[in-house]
Predict the 3D structure of the following.
Amino acid sequence: MTRSITILGATGSIGASTLDLIRQNREAWDVKALTANCSAKELAALAIEFGAEMAVVGDAACLADLREALSGTSISAEGGAQALCEAASLGADMTVAAIVGCAGLAPVMAAVEQGKCIALANKEALVSAGDILMDAVARHGATLLPTDSEHNAIFQCLDGGELADIRWITLTASGGPFREWSHEQLASAKREQALKHPNWDMGAKITIDSATMMNKGLEFIEAWHLFPVGLDRLRIVVHPQSVIHSMVEYRDGSTLAQLGPSDMRVPIASCLAWPGRMDTSCKALDLPTIGQLTFFEPDEDRFPATKLAREAAHAGGAAPAVLNAANEVAVAAFLDGQITFTQISSLVARTLETRLPPAPTSLAEVLAVDAEARKLAEELREHA
């Protein structure tokens, strides 16, 4: 049985992994739309390869290049934020939502409103607009499948079980490249060092988030929305080998853990084939070679990002959206050489301490909070 699919963020790491799986199961999928921020030539090549109906660049300035690359084909080429939402509204059986940042919020909501299946890899949708998004999922009868390795692991461990039976949900964290670094070393950490993740091959922003541990803080907030067991039953454990991707402990003392290689194709395949399974070319786990699995408590003195995220979740309202916006500004500033590594979390903390707007009640209000928080974070960075 062939299913239709739209991939929002087709040229990023999640999109590339998804398309690799589709290549291996080509007869099972009808590709409706592929999008990218720009990368016009790469996007056009993918659209032609997979016979997409539509290709969209979020940056309208790249549209001319996209149309040139697709000239002579029947593929529709569009550009701009509204076109992203149009691609998400095509009614595909599955939409993979992998646009990075708040640019993905409106397209995710547009996909949810179709009442179909969404494989969610956009963190910001749940962090910044979790209540609004989950309400829309319920209203439109959509199915939300978590694609992050940690949340997908929890989803698999739950397997339809009752949330009331859960004692703990444990998110595992690799600890990033600086897990054993001192305060002094962290203060002088370089961009190139932060981008060398020991286990995962990811985009720049999420790799820096992993180095600061903010990635795990954002995932903590996501888990709070996806698996509403209460904040007091969510916890984080550092697991450097990234073999156990998360765990669920039940009230009878049983703990279920999902294990797998550090390959995003595993959780993506879980979503694509749900509620079944599919073959992949992913390398099988070799536990005797791995030899040892270790676990540590997070050090929130050296890596305060998880504490900031937990406090934002407890505060609720606009706090998670402000946290996310300030972090995006801070990470971009670090990548541009404007602030040091340790100043990423401190800039986020100062933004949260300065002023919190009223709790947003709509997507438009979430985007307004995001814009205000970004402006404030930039001002704090400039006057630091």
Notes: Residues 3-146 form a domain with the Rossmann fold fold (CATH 3.40.50.720). The chain has three domains: 3-146, 149-298, 316-384. The chain has 17 helices and eleven strands. The longest helix spans residues 363-382.
